[in-house]
Design brief:
Length: 100
């Protein structure tokens, strides 16, 4: 029960200092695995389970680093690795793109 909560908190911490554009991560993604949830990556923010957080994005090769700018996860960063245009990996979960 603790692991899904930690994963959710970390997912919300997806932000990196830098640009406001999520680049190839832009849009809505659905996780698969032990905890199904949708996450939307928009200019300067991310939304998971109705919680909107201000973030920054940095594109680093095939990865996008998301860094939180405020809230509980302020200063935390998370890396999402783009496997292909519709699949990403992060937080030990696989994300599939489901919307723009």
């Amino acid at each position: 029960m603790v692991r899904p909560l930690v994963a959710l908190i970390l997912a919300m911490a997806l932000v990196a200092c830098g640009d406001s554009s999520p680049g190839p991560l832009a849009g809505t993604w659905q996780t698969t695995g032990f905890m199904a949830m949708k996450t939307s990556f928009r200019d300067g923010e991310t939304e998971t389970m109705g919680i909107i957080e201000k973030v920054g994005y940095k594109v680093d090769g095939q990865s996008v680093i998301v860094t939180y700018k405020d809230g509980l996860m302020k200063g935390s960063a998370m890396r999402f690795i783009l496997v292909n245009p519709t699949t990403a990996r992060g937080l030990d979960m696989t994300y599939r793109k489901v919307g723009n």
